[in-house]
Amino acid sequence: MSAENGRRYLLVTHIPFARTPEGPVRVDALWARDLAGLVASVGPIRVAAPELRPGEAMETWGPTAALVAREAGVSFAGFPPIARRTDLWKWPRIRAVLRREVAGAALVHTSNFFAPYVGLSYAHDVAVRSGKQTLFVIAEDFYDMLAWEWVRPAGQGWEGRRRRRHLEKLDRRVRRSASTATLTFLHTPAAVARYRLAARHGVAIRQPGHEVEDVISAQDLRQKCEEAARGGPLVLIAACRHKPLKGLDLLIGAVALLAAREVRVEARLYGQGEAGDALRALAERLGVADRVRFPGALPPGEAIYRAIAEGHLFVMPHRTTDFGRAFFDAMAGGTPVIAFRTPASVETVRDGVDGLLAPLDDVEGLAEAIHRFHADRALLARAAAAARERGLHNTRQAWFQLRAAWIRSLFAEEVSR
Questions:
Q1: Where are the beta strands (DSSP E) in 308-371?
Q2: Given 12, 113, 189, 325, which is the most exposed site by the fewest CB atoms within 10 A?
Q3: Same domain, 177 and 225
Q4: Are residues 280 and 354 in the same domain?
């Protein structure tokens, strides 16, 4: 793609940025990696996003932020952040920024926005009315996630009904964008199941976060499997935000069930979050505090891949149908995955090949899956080898190249008109 066309790629996002006095822009570290991959595959891009004021705190998905240099191929157009309903007065200014940026773009890339930024879908609508090429990304199974985290806690009263109506409205908004977008990327198996018929042209994307160089070496994998074959305790790894929907309480319960059967395992729960204190208290209450460790959060990249590779099993008992990139991170470490059976996991983890699936929300089933690998170390070695092989072929670069081919086709259509 030429530099000229690359500069006409507009990405509208709710992910904030902050300018530094030195020039680089500060963003979430995981987001910075995605931007770098996008630039490498399609050329320079323009990002329209909330711009934080100097000194304003930045919330990130992971534990770190990163700097994006001016030379990185990404330029930023800022608009006022939205924090609450009383910020409605900011929307005329935001829409003015979006109209200006869309007018100068050849391709407009938007996604399923979360509250309070659902109104950023305005950029997609303006682009459609203007005859621009549009890329729409459904990056999470937001419906199930919000139903679990936001609607469910509100109960069956007025507030619960209000939230359900809001979620249904958001669902309709996503379907409308998918039905009018030139191309829709469906980033999770659950998104494919829910929105493929609504999309004018939908494509499933399974984008991992790792590259070939992040995959465990054959020698290190052999050593890990040989060590496991000696019959010691299995090391269970989980790496995620410590939130109720991640099911880490059920993992701790599974460790306790195994302890009662005199099956010793060690769980390392990397990450941090609102449920951290409750999880530590649960481990104490169940008598497995000596078997459940909380090493803290790790930065994206080498540190997390190394931590996962040091484990024998990656256990992610996610209670909704979203999976992020965690399963693929595990496979890069030659670490078989144990997860609950959901539309996300069943289309990602090959049950009995590179992992095992347990019945949803079933702590005993989770314990049984762990015990199966504990008792059958040959199965563990085969699954570890299959996971590594999957990691070698399913890389971030490979998916970015495939995404880029589709995106370039949109620019080609725009130029040919």
A1: 313-316, 337-340, 355-358
A2: 325
A3: no
A4: yes
